[in-house]
Design brief:
The chain is α+β, with helices and mostly antiparallel strands and 949 residues long. It folds into 4 domains: 241 residues, Metalloenzyme, LuxS/M16 peptidase-like (Cytochrome Bc1 Complex, Chain A, domain 1, 2-Layer Sandwich); 162 residues, Cytochrome Bc1 Complex, Chain A, domain 1 (2-Layer Sandwich), CATH 3.30.830; 204 residues, 2-Layer Sandwich (Cytochrome Bc1 Complex, Chain A, domain 1); 203 residues, Metalloenzyme, LuxS/M16 peptidase-like (Cytochrome Bc1 Complex, Chain A, domain 1, 2-Layer Sandwich), CATH 3.30.830. Helix 1 crosses helix 4, helix 9 packs across helix 15 and helix 26 crosses helix 30. The chain is globular and about 75 Å long. The protein starts with 7 loop residues before the first strand and ends in a 7-residue tail after the last strand.
């Protein structure tokens, strides 16, 4: 086992002191020594309490900035849930020196990407940008930390409230099993416990919140002394801390924030509760045990326990439930937060199974685990896979920065990675059995029966628990008499900093070669001791017979089962003990194999790859089980409006006579037509080295890797010919005919899924019409600040997000607008979408939009080659489309020369008028049909499979 060295930590003695009000004090410097797994950084603290972590890494010309505030939904109270998440949205709505909608625009135009996230315990805001944009990012983050509240208006508040409500509808209320966690935690924690509701909050609480409530939340929790600013990447630490002092130093300290500690919930009995899920087709049993919080001494052992009993093909639940065709899915996991953890078992059984019987099997599995105990192999697998996961997480600067910020926020020690590695690699068999007896054996749990509408009596046991609301006292968070104190500056903060000198972006240097008739392309990357390999074999969905749609997907699943010399379980165990992964998946026109491993384990991983590719065994038992699961997955997918919209729209565009019009997973009917012989034939015919593409990124050379791949020449070498693609030709519109809408009815849907578009017949190209068309679409629907998204999300608050794009591959392409939009304004939204697209098509773009597009798309080049799989995607494009290695430079040359006239000409010729587009709505027909007809639309109803009625 690898030994991990402790980091070298240098503590300065009396460093500088500080005389200026904003001058930072260096607290510690952590440097890497040898091969230790560590994230080097310097830690500073400003007089106002802001902690600053700076991680220097010059491997890519980018920087990642993260501001983490130690406040999440755990600082909320009954009847005021969702504040933390709501405020996350408000932080993007402008501040004193940043205009409305400008935050996204500034970062996107700088070539960056950004977001914010909220969980129970913290809220973070982050952006990744070219390194020359760092000062601008610090100015932006400081402006909203110190100068936000005067820019918060009632209008912005109402729009974001609507957006958050739409987000809840899209992610929770209108999804199968979307409310399972909400019901689980409500019954696990005592009434009023801040973990007893979801971070997104309740609709009724969102409805009652007001602007002053939100302002108080900001004043109480968003002070610099409750935040950590973490900056990583291609930075000069001295210059960086000087900018931090300038922009953050004068922001006044906020109210003191003390840590919260609450005891684990104590359950005096098993709490049986139930809920009916309006969207789920299959029932579910969820069992949740109280567990200790994040970074507790028992967390690693509980994680190991969860892996042994409920993760992967070796797990007991998989063996006792999935492999025996009792359940579609069965899993266990140990999720932890700052105040508490939850050890959860979740089982989705097949139709006809009783949840009471599922509970009996779960309890019998616990007995089996106790009798069997923990093996040395279990521990080795867990320890090695954890080590590998930690290393993989350090591949990107954003990953390293996020780790530093999280460690500091929750432990006070940004260098906690060394302690975490020590804790996880020290787990023993005795530790796992101890935590099992302490937290699971004989302990009480919340046992939730998730019922379907057509089987409302399938309970594990009758409900026996009612939430006791007595004794709750709302916490006094100190919201009274809060005062907004603005910083007083000695410089003009309204002036946005200019970008530094342009960064030099170099696409990865690469080598090319062959293994038999397969093309190989690779690049050497020494940033982490890892290897990433992608293999693409011609075939995929386009090779399926139409009546056996889903064959490629099922074949890929079968490629993850038994081999000649390994059972699926033994194969999985061997990979996990190496910390490696080999996964097979089906695509549109190929089958992909992805391999990831530590460089030191490459040879052993390739031995397993040889076994997988050359000696897969397609047994009837495995086939029957996976086919059954595939059928249930296809049936369950038909309860998700977004899935229905996408699959029906494909069928409307391409018809049912070509694979492009059929769902990748297949349908219940088509999967039933697939036999084991079809799987075997697919392997023989389409899993061939002839024409395959192999992409390699890692700490190795061409000369070292190619000989290791010589085993591939034992594969089939027959030529792969895909069936001829026959695309339907849409009839021309009838003069003066009314606009037709295809409508799929989902009664009671709170949102309407929109799909609008057409078959463009434009295959992918890197420097031709396809590329230029997507550049043209960028200000219309390709960026957050596009016309469509700004209007529908930021101006109206009707959607969580709206987008449009030209999509293309080797053979064809299409243009699609998509969004999930609040139900009530469906008719108005449709009219506005058509209006915005028509106006863009007819009038072209402004000079400002041209500048924004050119700057954003050009400067974003710096972010494209950081991780192994990002580099692999670049190399894959070169192979797949026979591109020159400098095609990104050619793209940028084209982009810089494009004019508003070019955009206008492309819009007129490549975006069709609405009457030539297919319009699909998936929503509540009874609620919307009248409104749509009043606007002159003709409604044509279709079923959930796209068959017109």
């Amino acid at each position: 086992m690898k030994k991990f060295m402790l980091a070298s930590v240098f503590l300065p003695l009396g460093f500088l002191g500080y005389t200026a009000s904003g001058q930072a004090k260096l607290i510690e410097s952590v440097k890497k020594s040898g091969d230790e797994i560590i994230i080097p950084y310097e830690k500073y603290v400003l007089p106002n309490g802001l902690t600053v972590l700076i991680h220097e890494d010059h491997s890519d010309p980018i920087v990642h900035v993260d501001v983490t505030y130690h406040v999440g939904s755990a600082r909320e109270e009954i009847n005021k849930s969702g504040f933390a998440h709501f405020f996350e949205h408000m932080m993007f709505q402008g501040s004193d020196n940043v205009a409305d909608e400008e935050h996204f625009k500034i970062i996107t135009e700088a070539g960056g990407t950004l977001n914010g996230t909220t969980n129970r315990d913290r809220t973070n805001y982050f952006e990744t940008v070219p390194a020359n944009q760092l000062e601008k990012m610090l100015w932006l983050e400081a402006d909203r930390m110190g100068f936000l509240l005067d820019a918060v208006t009632q209008e912005k508040f109402e729009v974001q409230r609507a957006t958050v409500k739409n987000e809840r509808g899209q992610r929770y209320d209108n999804q199968p099993y979307g409310l399972v966690n909400e019901v689980s935690v409500r019954n696990l924690y005592p009434y009023g416990h801040p973990y007893s509701w979801l971070t997104i909050g309740y609709i009724e609480d969102l409805n009652r919140v007001n602007v002053q409530d939100l302002k108080n939340f900001f004043l109480r929790w968003y002070g610099p002394n409750n935040a950590v600013l973490t900056i990583g990447g291609d930075v000069d630490p001295k210059q960086t801390i000087a900018w931090v002092e300038k922009y953050f130093g004068a922001i006044p300290k906020g109210p003191e924030v003390s840590a919260v500690k609450l005891p684990m919930p104590i359950l005096d009995k098993d709490r049986y509760v139930s809920m009916t899920d309006n969207y789920a087709k299959l029932p579910m049993l969820r069992m949740v045990f109280p567990a200790p919080p994040r970074f507790s001494k028992d967390e690693p052992a509980l994680d190991c326990l969860a892996e042994i009993i409920g993760q992967g093909k070796n797990s007991l639940f998989y063996q006792n439930l999935v492999k025996k065709n009792i359940a579609v899915n069965a899993a266990a996991y140990n999720s932890t937060s700052e105040l508490a953890g939850e050890f959860t078992i979740s089982v989705t059984p097949y139709p006809g199974q009783k949840l009471a019987d599922i509970e009996k099997i779960i309890r019998a599995t616990f007995d089996e685990f106790e009798a069997k105990g923990v093996t040395d192999e279990d521990i080795k697998k867990f320890v090695n896979s954890q080590e590998a996961d930690i290393i993989y997480g350090l591949e990107s600067v954003s990953g390293r920065v996020s780790q530093l910020a999280s460690f500091y926020t929750f432990t006070g020690n940004a260098n906690y990675i060394a302690e975490m590695l020590k804790d996880y690699t020290a787990v023993t068999k005795e530790d796992v059995m101890r935590v099992y007896r302490q937290y699971i054996k004989g302990k009480h749990a919340v046992i939730l029966s998730v019922l379907t509408q057509n089987d409302a009596t399938n309970l594990a046991a009758a409900d026996n628990y009612t939430i006791n609301q007595s004794g709750y006292t709302a916490p006094d968070y100190g919201y009274d008499h809060l005062k907004y104190n603005k910083a007083k500056d000695q410089f003009d903060r309204s002036k946005m900093p200019e970008a530094g000198p342009a960064v030099v972006v170099n696409a990865p240097a690469y080598w090319e070669g062959n293994v038999g008739q397969a093309k190989v392309i690779g690049t050497t990357s020494k940033e982490t001791p890892t290897v990433s390999i992608i293999m693409n074999f011609d075939g995929g969905k386009l090779a399926e017979p139409v009546d056996k749609n889903g064959l490629a997907n099922l074949f890929a699943t079968m490629m993850n089962e038994d081999t000649k010399n390994y059972s699926a379980e033994a194969f999985s165990m061997a990979l996990d003990q190496l910390g490696s992964s080999i996964s097979v998946s089906g695509g549109s026109y190929n089958t992909s194999v992805r391999i990831q491993c530590l460089t030191k384990n490459l040879d052993a991983t390739l031995n397993l790859l040889e076994e997988r590719l050359l000696h897969s065994q397609f047994t009837q038992e495995d086939f029957d089980r996976n086919k059954k699961r595939a059928v249930e997955s296809a049936k369950n997918a038909m309860n998700r409006p977004a899935y229905i919209a996408s699959t029906v729209f494909d069928k409307l565009l391409y018809g049912s006579a070509t694979a492009y019009g059929l769902p990748s997973m297949g349908t219940e009917k088509s999967i039933e037509q697939i036999s084991l012989a079809d799987i075997q034939q697919f392997y023989s015919r389409y899993f061939s080295l002839n024409g395959a593409e192999i992409i390699i990124v890692g700490d190795l050379t061409k000369e070292s890797i190619l000989p290791k791949l010589s085993f591939l020449q034992q594969m089939n070498n027959n030529r792969v010919d895909l069936p001829e693609l026959k695309l339907p030709v849409p009839p021309p519109p009838v003069k003066d005919a009314k606009q037709e809408i295809i409508f799929v009815d989902v009664p009671g849907a709170a949102q309407t899924e929109f799909r609008i578009g057409f078959v463009s017949n434009m295959p992918y190209d890197a420097t031709g019409t396809f590329y230029r068309s997507n550049v043209m679409n960028y200000p219309l629907g390709g960026a957050f600040n596009s016309r469509l998204n700004l209007y529908l999300r930021e101006e109206k608050g009707w959607t969580y997000g709206a987008r449009s794009a030209f999509n293309g591959d080797k053979f064809t392409g299409d243009y699609i607008f998509s969004a999930g939009i609040k139900a009530d304004p469906t008719d108005s939204a449709l009219a506005d979408i058509i209006r915005i697209i028509a106006q863009f098509r007819d009038e072209g773009i402004s000079n400002d939009e041209l500048t924004f597009t050119q700057n954003s798309m050009t400067q974003s080049e710096a972010r494209k080659y950081e991780t192994g799989f990002q580099k692999a995607a670049f190399l894959s494009n070169i192979l797949r489309y026979d591109l020159p290695g400098d095609y990104p430079r050619l793209q940028n040359d084209i982009l810089k020369k494009m004019t508003t006239a070019d955009f206008e000409n492309l819009a007129k010729t490549k975006i069709r008028p609405a009457k030539y587009m297919t319009i699909l709505l998936v929503g509540d027909k009874a609620r919307l049909e009248g409104k749509l007809k009043e606007r002159g639309y003709v409604i044509v109803e279709a079923d959930a499979e796209g068959n017109l009625k």
